[in-house]
Amino acid sequence: MAWDFESDRSIYSQIIEHFELSILSGELLPGAKLDSVRELASQASVNPNTMQRALSELERIGLVYTQRTNGRFITQDLSAIENARNNFAKKHIIDFLNRMQSLGLNKAQIIDLIEKYYEEDLQ
Amino acid sequence: MSNILECKNLRKQYGKLVALNDINLELPEGKIIGLLGPNGSGKTTLIKLASGLLVPSSGQITVGGNAPGIESKKIISYLPERNYLDNTMTVNQLIGFFGDFYPDFDKNKAVDMLTRLNIDSARKLKTLSKGTKEKVQLIMVMSRNAKLYILDEPIGGVDPAARDYILETIISNYNEDATILISTHLIADIESVLDDFVFIKNGEIVMQSSVDKIRDEQGKSVDALFREEFKC
Question: Residue B88's domain is classified under what CATH number?
Answer without folding.
Answer: 3.40.50.300
